[in-house]
Design a protein that fits this description.
The structure holds two protein chains of two kinds. By secondary structure, chain A is of the alpha+beta class. Helix content of chain A is 32%, strand content 24%. The chains are: A alpha+beta, B alpha+beta. Chain A: It comes from Coniochaeta pulveracea.
């Protein structure tokens, strides 16, 4: 009987074919044995520019072109390999020290083996993406070698060999082959470059040595480099951790996580709950997690229950028994205050929970016990497993107090704590040799691991951003913290720009294809109104009376979709960036400058492509008709809000342009009234403007923004255009229109605020509908205190949901509503230069009016959902970054110029402090009891009436909403080296 | 297939019957009564299956068996495992107890016959043909007889493996295929591997994705299976002779044909038995098979054969009762004349058949040994 199986003897090509067998578990619970045949070939090139042999055999594309070889013919040399070398890192090298490979000072000519790339992908998707990014960058010369498909480098798994061992062997074999292969190239210049394996696995290194393969551990290799000392900090010290672990193997600080299968079973059965872990901004030991099974968030209290979860992680929790349910804390706990005397080096001598933490907990318990009102207790939970870590890179600075004397001088490796900028992130233990250099710097680190026996997560340095409080470092820190893409646009993106550059003009001949289906609106009196110094002018307006007594009103939006075609590199980049980010002194553009500030920008006196929405309105601002068209316009003037206002107010100006602005203003007021009648909310958030010294752009003063009539003029017409466009694209694409919605807030969101208003002021907050809310907000007036109404509005805004982009097919129609604007349907259309959503809306509208064919990308629901998800996140981050930037500059403006006697309002009260809002600066600050006087006064907190009465060293009584006078100054915390705004209570 | 007619004349049948009745019997292919036809076998012929085997008999019949396993949710059986509802998902502490060795929760392992689905395909026969269905029933009956097999498919109280056995005869049925199919199934099951379970207790099962780490359905130690699937042997008797693995022609003259399924007895004392060097065999099921001999037309002695006319009568010199319309009457056994067997098998013959099968060092024993030698690569 001839065997049916393939064997080496019977089949001459058997050596070219191999197979891979593995078990695949599908999401639906199926478990399958998968057999894949692997066809081995010999024409996969080594991609070294030295190699002639591969040049001949390497596969060519249909045009007969060869993919250019990647690896340099003159690679850098080191002490050990003076002839030059190529690097072949193994999987762990990438996993543990990806930051190293991204360095620009070293790590060029790297061979990424396919097996390594696959392993990296299985272990960590973010790292994989970074690695792929590296292989795509031209200057780093990373080459992916498909060792698993090349006959010479393929290895069969031996009997009883683990997958890891087999893969390690494959790596060694590839290194060996490369070495031998390159040795044959025989360069005239002399020796062929060495091919060096990089690994941190001792066993692998030993075997490589035995087989005569050049290999080096990461630390040894980095040690040979020029700035090796600095780079050494980027290698997480695995060996060291092993030693520590041995020392106290049976004493773990944190409970073990449950196995993945247990977690999944529990979650499916509804016994465990999965969600995103959030840390309270006021108390680092209090986390919360929203899970679908409970209407309110579950509390996670204490270090042990939080069990190594970090803000943003996707975790699985188990609800604790009812007798352990608690109230959310009314106390402010800051990590650096409670644990500031910890020593990063010697952890084992300490208790898991520090004395101070314990004391804080005791007080908490006492308070809970005194309370008889059981109803306040909330379900609590503990973390039993982590589904996905959401660790990113964190910006922070080194805690000075943890630096030993020796560390300040020598080059010895020292362990220090890093205090992240984000208060929700725990301190990170960091080993570094450059303590002296890093002190007082903003630095970027990543977390490597958080072991059960380590109180704090361990991380390693990525790079230093610069001195604390320097503008460059702080700005970069901000951008990194909020994940803003701030690198310059890559060449591929810039290649998508029009070739003419700044000389691009609207074609003179109307026969040009660019004019196809465009309305010629060049003779209309169009102008733009924007803030001072605005360069990216998205919108322009016009109005003119019609013979029938009605008005024609036009909103003209920059035609960005003409320049940014779907799915090219520029479109991709813009969709990733999502939005332009405005910082106080800097703007991070979504689109390259050329488009944003010139070709698309509706600059005055030049012809520009636009997308116009033109309505016919009667004198009551009722819309008679609307039409949408691509157009060519010529803006007559670019006003600032102030200029426009002056011109309107100046009765002597009677030219057509000014009159058309007056018409617009008249109509906008009517539109606004209609909107208010419909129940639109006028919400508030403190907005300030930083005045800069023009030369140095140092902040000199802070002012609250003034709102003029012209601001609201532009706003009204933009809202109207957005609403009109939303209706049009939804009609054309009922499933895939990109819209924006603002969900009605759930009533419980307002519980606390309405209770506070009732208790303190006897005011009712009616949250039945947006109309009712708007009305009741209008009634929240304190005749003695004009700011009180704004204060309530600010606080109400914080109870709201945030608006979000969505794809119309994902929500039912009654969920489309924009609560804040009281509009049934809404989208963003008017700022395509700075928002990606608007660009998509432009494309959809263009398709809806038959201007162009529908691009698949604006019709694919899955794609649009992904876009919406991304831009929602980006939008939010951009806002946060902008706010943080203002906060930083306010602090800088106050530097050395403390502002005494500022009015402030109490917006939140804890049992050991309270938060005040200073309207003039738009900032909030925490005043702790211990800041009031020395020694810390005793205090009694009544959560029912929101009052805090102190006694002893200083006697004050503070109420919620109370107006107080504070002194605002900047303060540098000597302990942490952090500068912040400090508030002192002046009176009462 | 039992009705698979052999084109042999009554005289040939009579000759066969006579030679098989000799002591020792003389088989047409010269085999000893307990000798199997030469077999060649290999496993792992279907890379995508969990286990597979291919067996060829020297007469050219050939079969392939593939075993596929799928995860299936166990339908909750109220009464039986009610406590699974509350106690089932003991995360944390409880799971540790579950790690205990097999025997402790062996009792809770309850299999169900529905966890095995077997289909037999014979070229030229419909899959709902009675004989095909009967073959599948016989093979699965042996497998399920003692409940031991389905217990192997138990994963936890909520999940089990569902096993699909596809048995295909790829040559025309040149002889009754039962022994071949049983051998092939046996080998395929021996070679069957299931992914290694990583989860514990009653969690949703999670498996090691490394196929090399998968475990044999019949666990093995040092290349030897600790226990083995059952075998179904085809045995027939002619007179008092017991003949194993009959060829088609032999079956055509069988007095009685039995399908005897034999398994290894599972006893706690198994290790002790192994020391003695034997295995405890256990009878799982016995089925009688209708041998084609019963349907073969009987032969007529020349003396009574009217076709030979008077000449025959003269030669016989015997007074024969005249035969109206040439109908063959029942008659005494005549040497050299084929007479289809009538009536059931004799109890004594049956008993000795079974004895012979279970005999220590007998055919079944030898067969088990021989199959052990097949490489399960």
């Amino acid at each position: 009987m001839a065997s049916l199986k393939r064997s080496a003897i019977s089949d001459p090509f058997a050596s070219n074919i191999s197979s891979k067998v593995y078990v695949r578990s599908t999401k639906s619970g199926k478990v399958q044995k998968i057999v894949r045949e692997v066809y081995l070939r010999q024409d996969i090139p080594c991609s070294s520019q030295l190699c002639q042999a591969c040049l001949k055999t390497a596969p060519r594309n249909a045009a007969g072109e060869l993919t250019p070889f990647v690896l340099s013919d003159r690679p850098a040399g080191t002490k050990t390999y003076p002839q030059g070398h190529y690097l072949v890192p193994d999987t762990n090298a990438f996993l543990s020290a990806m930051d190293l490979f991204e360095q620009s000072s070293a790590f060029y000519d790297v061979i990424v083996l396919q097996i390594v790339l696959e392993e990296v992908r299985n272990r960590s998707l973010p790292l994989y993406n970074r690695l792929v990014g590296l292989t795509k960058s031209e200057d780093k010369r990373f080459y992916v070698f498909f060792n698993e498909f090349r006959l010479e480098t393929y290895v069969n798994r031996d009997q009883g060999e683990t997958v890891n061992d087999r893969n390690d062997r494959a790596v060694r074999k590839a290194v060996k082959w490369y070495g031998e292969h390159l040795a044959q190239t025989k360069t005239k210049k002399g020796e062929a470059p060495a091919v060096v394996m990089l690994s941190n696995d001792r066993d692998n290194l030993r075997k490589a040595k035995a087989e005569g393969i050049p290999a080096s551990s990461l630390a040894d290799y980095v040690g040979q480099l020029k700035d090796g000392d600095k780079l050494l900090d980027m290698i997480p010290d695995a060996q060291d951790r092993d030693v520590v672990r041995d020392k106290k193997s049976n004493e773990h600080l944190y409970p073990e996580y449950l196995s993945l299968s247990k977690l999944m079973t529990g979650v499916k059965a509804g016994l465990l709950h999965q969600g995103i872990f959030n840390v309270s901004p006021y108390n680092y030991l209090e986390g919360s997690i929203r899970v679908p099974a409970f209407p309110k968030a579950l509390l996670i209290l204490g270090r042990e229950n939080i069990n190594r979860a970090v803000d943003g992680d996707i975790v699985v929790v188990e609800v604790l028994p009812k007798d352990q349910w608690k109230e959310p804390s009314t106390k402010v706990l800051e990590e650096d205050a409670l644990t500031k005397n910890e020593n990063a080096d010697t952890e084992e001598g300490q208790d898991f929970i520090t004395e101070k933490e314990r004391k804080a907990l005791q007080e908490e318990a006492k308070r809970t016990l005194q309370k008889t009102t059981e109803g306040h207790a909330q379900p609590t939970a503990r973390v039993v497993g982590i589904i996905k870590r959401n660790w990113r890179q964190y910006v922070g600075h080194i805690d000075q107090s943890t630096v030993s004397q020796a560390g300040k001088q020598g080059r010895k490796q020292d362990t220090v704590f890093l205090i992240p900028m984000d208060k929700k992130i725990p301190k990170i233990r960091l080993r570094t040799r450059q303590v002296a250099e890093l002190l007082g710097k903003r630095i970027l680190v990543t977390i490597d691991a958080w072991d059960r026996d380590s109180r704090h997560p361990a991380g390693h340095l990525v790079r230093s951003l610069g001195e604390l409080e320097t503008k460059a470092a702080e700005t970069e820190a901000l951008l990194l913290e909020y994940d803003v893409q701030y690198r310059p646009f890559p060449k591929t993106v810039l290649d998508c720009l029009p070739k003419e550059g700044h000389d691009w003009k609207v074609p003179a001949s109307t026969d040009d294809p660019g004019w196809r289906d465009r309305a010629d609106l060049r003779d209309l009196l169009i102008c733009s109104i924007d803030p001072i110094g605005c360069q990216d002018i998205d919108d322009a307006l016009h109005a003119r009376p019609l013979p029938n007594g009605n008005f024609e009103v036009g909103v003209h939006i920059a035609d960005v979709s003409h320049f940014v075609k779907p799915n090219n590199a520029m479109d991709m980049e813009a969709s990733i960036r999502g939005t332009t980010v405005y910082l106080v002194d800097k703007r991070i553009d979504m689109l390259p400058m050329l488009l944003g500030t010139d070709l698309c920008s509706l600059k005055p006196y030049v012809e520009r492509y636009a997308f116009s929405v033109i309505w016919e309105m009667n004198a009551h601002a009722d819309i008679v008709g609307a039409r949408f068209t691509k157009s060519v316009i010529k803006s007559r003037e670019a006003f600032s809000y102030e200029q426009a206002q002056l011109r309107i107010d100046d009765a002597s100006q009677q030219d057509d342009l000014t009159n058309s602005i007056r018409t617009l203003l008249m109509l906008s007021k009517k539109l606004k009234q209609k909107r208010m009648d419909a129940g639109a909310l006028s919400l508030s958030s403190p907005e300030v403007k930083i005045q800069m010294e023009s030369e140095t752009s140092d902040p000199i003063d802070v002012k609250t923004k003034q709102l003029l009539d012209t601001n609201s003029l532009v706003e009204e017409f933009m809202l109207l255009a957005n609403i009109s466009v939303a209706g049009k694209i939804y009609e054309a694409f009922p499933q895939t229109a990109i819209l924006r919605r603002h969900a009605a807030p759930s009533k419980t969101n307002f519980d606390e605020l309405s209770n506070q208003l009732k208790v303190k002021r006897g005011m009712e907050l009616n949250v039945e509908s947006s109309r009712a809310l708007a009305d009741s907000l209008d009634r929240c007036v304190d005749p003695k205190e004009p700011f009180f109404n704004t204060l309530v509005r600010i606080m109400a805004t914080r109870c709201m949901m945030s608006a979000e982009y969505f794809c119309s097919g994902t929500q039912s129609e009654d969920e489309f509503r924009h609560y804040g604007l009281a509009s049934e349907i809404y989208t963003h259309f008017t700022s395509p230069i700075r928002r990606y959503a608007d660009l998509v809306a432009h494309r959809q509208l263009a398709a809806a009016i038959g201007y162009e064919a529908v691009d698949p990308s604006v019709r694919s629901r899955g794609r649009l959902e992904a876009v919406c998800k991304n831009i929602n996140v980006r939008h939010r981050n951009a806002q946060l970054a902008g706010r943080a930037s203002i906060e930083y500059y306010v602090g800088q403006a106050l530097r050395g110029r403390p502002a005494g006697n500022e009015e402030a309002f109490i917006i939140k009260i804890f049992s050991n402090g309270f938060v005040v809002l200073v309207p003039r600066f738009g900032i909030e600050g925490l005043i702790r009891l211990r800041d009031l006087a020395e020694p810390e006064p005793a205090a009694e907190f009544d959560p029912e009436t929101y009052t805090l009465v102190t006694s002893g060293s200083r006697q004050v009584k503070v109420d919620l909403f109370q107006k107080v006078v504070v002194k605002v100054s900047d303060e540098k915390n000597e302990l942490t080296g952090k500068r912040g705004v400090k508030m002192e209570l002046v009176s009462p | 297939m039992s009705t698979n007619h052999v084109l042999l004349s009554p005289a040939e049948l009579a000759y066969l019957h006579a030679s098989l009745s000799l002591l020792p019997p003389l088989r047409p292919d010269g085999r000893a009564p307990n000798q199997y036809r030469p077999v060649s076998a290999e496993t792992g012929v279907l890379p995508g299956a969990n286990g597979s085997a291919r067996v060829c008999f020297a007469d050219g019949t050939e079969a392939i068996v593939g075993v596929k396993a799928e995860i299936e949710k166990t339908a909750s059986r109220p009464g039986l495992d009610g406590e699974a509802e509350e106690g089932g998902l003991d995360l944390g502490q409880g799971a540790v107890d579950d790690d205990d060795d097999e025997p402790s929760d062996d009792a809770s392992r309850q299999g169900s016959n529905e966890w095995v689905e077997m289909t037999v395909e014979i070229p030229g026969y419909r899959d709902d043909d009675a004989s095909t269905v009967f073959l599948a029933a016989m093979l699965s009956e042996a497998l399920l007889a003692d409940g031991e097999f389905v217990r192997r498919l138990w994963i936890n109280r909520r999940f089990h493996w569902k096993l699909y056995l596809d048995i295909i005869l790829i040559s025309p049925p040149l002889s009754y295929p039962l022994p071949l199919l049983s051998l092939t199934t046996h080998l395929a099951l021996l070679a069957t591997r299931l992914p290694r379970l990583k989860s514990e207790g009653d969690e949703d099962p999670l498996f090691d994705d490394d196929w090399a780490a998968s475990e044999y359905l019949y666990s093995r130690e040092a290349g030897k299976a600790l226990s083995r699937p059952p075998l179904t042997l085809l045995v027939m008797a002619v007179g008092n002779n017991i003949i194993f693995d009959p060829a088609k022609e032999e079956l055509a003259v069988a007095d009685v044909a039995l399908a005897v399924s034999v398994g290894e007895a599972v006893s706690k004392a198994k290790e002790a038995m192994d020391v003695e060097g034997g295995r405890a065999l256990r009878l799982l099921s016995v089925r009688t098979i209708d041998p084609p001999s019963r349907l073969t037309p009987p032969g007529v002695p020349n003396a009574t054969n009217s076709a030979y006319g008077s000449a025959a009568a003269v030669a016989g010199k015997q007074k024969q009762p005249s035969q109206p319309e040439g109908r063959t009457l029942e008659m005494e056994q005549v040497e050299g004349v084929w007479k289809a067997p009538r009536g059931g098998a004799k109890v004594l013959v049956m008993a000795s058949l079974v004895d012979k099968v279970l005999e220590k060092g007998g055919v079944a024993d030898e067969l088990f040994d021989a199959l052990e030698a097949v490489d399960l690569g």
